[in-house]
Amino acid sequence: MKALTLVLATHNRGKRREWQALLEGLPITLLLPDELGLSDPVEETGHTYLENALLKARTIAAAAGLPALADDSGLEVDALEGAPGLHSARYVLGSDEIRYRALLRALEGVPAEARSARFRCIAALVLPDGREFHTEGVCEGVIQSAPAGEGGFGYDPVFFIPEQGCAMAELSFEVKNRISHRARAAQALREILEHISSL
Fold it and tell me: Rounded distance, CA 172 to CA 166, Å?
């Protein structure tokens, strides 16, 4: 397998750490755009996770002349007709805690059995020659009535995973990187990257 250099279309170093763990064992160097002098964030103007992921990956691949990897994800709550969904990171202005507490307020009075939800992630890989690939990962759960755990980020403290018996924020880094929506999208993407690096 030949070594690959990928640019991860984010300025979030925490997300790079997560992707490095998800792609561990592959001959891949993962760079951030600012390490290549690309400091402008890509505006997410798409109407779907896939459109946003491809928009980011295409922009970075074209600017860097290297393969680019991007993902877009969100929390879909059935009682809120799929919201916050595509707008999860911009549900309300402020910190992660402000956002998940706004979500809990929106679900006040909704019984536990009607709080089903899922995290969904689309990962997109764009190569400089124009080839594009994408994968999807989903993690099913329930929105609990109060936050728990110190790990993770975003809505992890209020997202309860029945088969784990705890909130996503209570999972170890290793377990999260096996069962999360991003982990499942990455597992499918690994096969694509393995094929590309074997050519």
Answer: 11
